[in-house]
Amino acid sequence: MARLTFKDFWRNKSFRISIVQTLFFMGWGMVFLHYNIVEYAWVMFLVFPIILGLSLGVLPSTSSVVKGLLVAMLIFFVFCIVSGLEGLICTVFLIPLILPPVFLGFIIAHLFKQYRLLSRKSELSIRLSPLLVLLLLGPLEHFTLQNDKTVNSVSTQIILPYPPTEVFHAIKSIDTLYGPKPFLMQLDLPVPHKCILEREEVGAYRICYFEGGKIVEEITMFEPGKLLAMDVIDYELTGRRWLGFKEAIYTFDSLTTGQTRLTRTTTYTSELYPRAYWKPFEKEGIQQEHHYVFENLRRKLGDRGH
């Protein structure tokens, strides 16, 4: 049997239309997202993919349409990563979220065709429907959710064989962070470099520098060996407008063994929906950054002890 090449697939009209149609509507979806017309929520991640699949499902050749869809998705996501429109992590997490609804819409359209429920006029309307969803439902959801930001907190703990005061002074300002990066940091999770405390008092600023940005914190509680609490007053982290950092707290608990239990709590807001899908990824990403800082702190305290 002769091997099929891309040229052979390209000769199929349904394959070509599937690629062009998918890229066209996904491109408009990205434009609407980046101009803040639609939210990173239900319309974009559920309704739009279903309608996109429905619009593709009315095309005649099922297998060719599926192949065209997958090729177009690959082209689109690679472009988003290379151009910097979206990060690698977001893209990896996004694919399993939107592909199932696309195929659900595709199956619905296939059933409509099988039972002859579609007319020529309705097919044309369905093929244009993804853009109508963005134009009509997207702004409506944006208006509904624009002030609805869920507040979340993530806490991580570590036990260190040092007294609380020593741990406190080691974490309040960190010169250089280095070492093995957790998995998500190896993709494109922001990597912290250093944190600088301008003064040791309430009201002072603590600035943490990352690859591609920084977080500016204002000290709200400064109790050596007990508590270091900060409000995030500004942050510049590329590609993450859907997360809003609110507060960072370190608590230091003295244990009877002479050790310290250090707890880091990050409070943030998120605009990503559905929450049941995104929240575990957000938690894992924040905890990986906590652990990265903790391991650096462990080395720093160990170096002091020598």
From TrEMBL:
This is Polyketide cyclase. The keyword Transmembrane applies. Keywords: Membrane, Transmembrane, Transmembrane helix. The chain crosses the membrane at residues 15-35, 41-59, 66-85, 91-112.
